[in-house]
Design goal:
The chain is built from eight helices and two strands, in the order αααββααααα. By secondary structure, the chain is mainly α. The protein has one domain. The protein has a two-stranded antiparallel ribbon with strand order 1-2. A hairpin with a 6-residue loop joins β1 and β2. The radius of gyration is 24 Å and the shape is elongated.
Amino acid sequence: MNVLYEQLVNELIWYLLPFFRVAAFIVAAPIFSTSMVPMKIRLIIAVSISIAIFPSLTPTSQLDPVSLDMFLMILQQILIGVSLGFVMQFIFAAVVNGGQLIGMQMGLGFAQMMDPQTGVNVPVVSQFYNIIAVLLFLSINGHLVLLQIVAESFDLIPVDGSGLSMSGIESLVFFSSWMFSGALIMVLPAVVSLLMINMVMGVITRATPQMNIFAIGFSITITAGFVVIMVTLSTALPQLALLFNEGFMFMRELLNS
């Protein structure tokens, strides 16, 4: 009876360790972590994925559930899951930053609304680009790719493995720069176009000081901003798809590091 009890406890521990990694990923990853997804649904998703992954795991040793090693392994699984989820969060942060750049250029930086993805107020232009990004992400089955990468992580980084290396954590920190460089890549045509319009407005102000440029300039920049967004959206979408692909590739590189 004692042997059966110890075996049952060990199997429960080996089920809980993958659950911690999957649950941490669900909490950190985009789409799944949004406030529009209830906590019960996230828990069901995490438990379902853990049950599906558990048969492929091979327990290698007995673990003491109240030992320091068990605590460190739990922290290790949480770190792996959060790191994988944050990779795509950096890409969506780049979308928000890109929309904020355009909103500031066209004079809509003050108009803000709550982003359901992050729960904070963002400019309406950022919210528009964020909705486009979510729809594109779902249309290319990005959420399924995320779940596939999480399942592959148990083969590349076993539960009883050494976890993420220091070089992998360092590369994750450097990858966070995509929040700014990716935003500039995505909205560069729109930002340059709006900058040219603002330069023209400045030249008109210098040429005709009698004209109250502030009375008409605000409406002109907003109207021109919407036109520029409509024209450059066809170029922003391929760049956004490349950013998603870059994120997926980095997640696999992070697991192989």
